[in-house]
Amino acid sequence: MRRQRSSCGIIGVGEQLTALEQEEKELYNERLYVGRTADQKEKFAKEQPYYPEAPADLVSASELIKEQQEILAKNGENQRKRERLHQLEQDYQKVNEQLSELFCKTDKDRGRPKGCQTVSRRPAGRM
Questions:
Q1: Residue 120's closest CA among 94, 105, 100, 91?
Q2: pTM exceeding 0.85
């Protein structure tokens, strides 16, 4: 190998040979790095869980966010409706108690000896 280098130096191609050897070494190292990276990524991919039932089509994140926002809005509206229903039920109970008191007072004013009973009527559809 030394003789070859000496011969190359004598004929004037030593510097070119050194540059080519350096380039070859750099390309080899780059190829080695790419190969190692590919092996690491392949190993990582094999370690990932696989879900065969998952759809093959990609799902749009913005579409999922939009659907979630629509669901949350509907849930919020339903919650407001439940709160309104609760308020109406309380109002109904209050009016029912007032009505019962008025019936009791009217019965007493008319001299009827009936016992005061609460009105037990429920709104239609709510049992």
A1: 100
A2: no
Measured distance CA(2)–CA(8) in Å, rounded: 10
Condensed to tens digits (0 to 9), the pLDDT of residues 23-53 reads 999 999 999 999 999 999 999 999 999 888 8
Provide the token pair at 88. Answer: 């109406």
Query: Coil, strand, or helix at residue 36?
Result: helix
Specify whether the CB–CB gap between 77 and 90 falls below 8 A: no
What is the C-alpha separation between 101 and 109, in angstroms, rounded? 12
